[in-house]
Amino acid sequence: MNIKYNEIEKTIEIKDGVKNYYFVMKFLMILNLLNAVLRLLNLKKTGIGFQEIIWFTLGIASLIILYLFIFKRTTTEKIPITEICKLKEKSILGRSRFSIKLLNGKKRELTELKTQAEFKELKKMFAEIGITN
């Protein structure tokens, strides 16, 4: 677990490389959206067919995912404890995912936490700092 509390700056420091992953995902969603727009430019000539419906659906999905990555998630590696709202655990298909919910409405995914023991250790650290769940 690469999550540490910096007492001097009063921040949580997370080192997990999620910034690179989000950059690649944003880049791919922009490329996908651009491709969908280019495919749909000839809609007047070709009419609406199966391919156009697929590209329209892919374009809308790319817009939604891009919105989520830009406005609802963050890749900040140093988070001041005054900005942290709570620590969240969500279980999807039996697999737990952990995140930090911030006061500005964004959340920071904790991809390095794999086990329940690591989550309990992080929960203990947050309790010592004074952040409630």
What does this structure look like?
The protein is of the alpha+beta class. The chain has one domain. Helices cover 48% and strands 23% of the residues. The protein is built from 4 helices and 6 strands, in the order ββαααββββα. A 3-stranded antiparallel β-sheet has the order 1-2-3, with no helix packed on it. A 3-stranded antiparallel β-sheet has the order 4-5-6, with helices on one face. Strand 4 and strand 5 form a beta hairpin. The model has no long low-confidence stretch (mean pLDDT 88). Keywords: Membrane, Transmembrane, Transmembrane helix.
Topology (elements, then pairings):
Layout: E1 3-6, E2 11-14, H1 18-40, H2 43-46, H3 50-72, E3 78-80, E4 84-92, E5 95-102, E6 107-109, H4 116-129
Antiparallel strand pairs: 1-2, 2-3, 4-5, 5-6
Helix pairs in contact: 1-3
Transmembrane segments: 21-41, 53-71
Keywords: Membrane, Transmembrane, Transmembrane helix
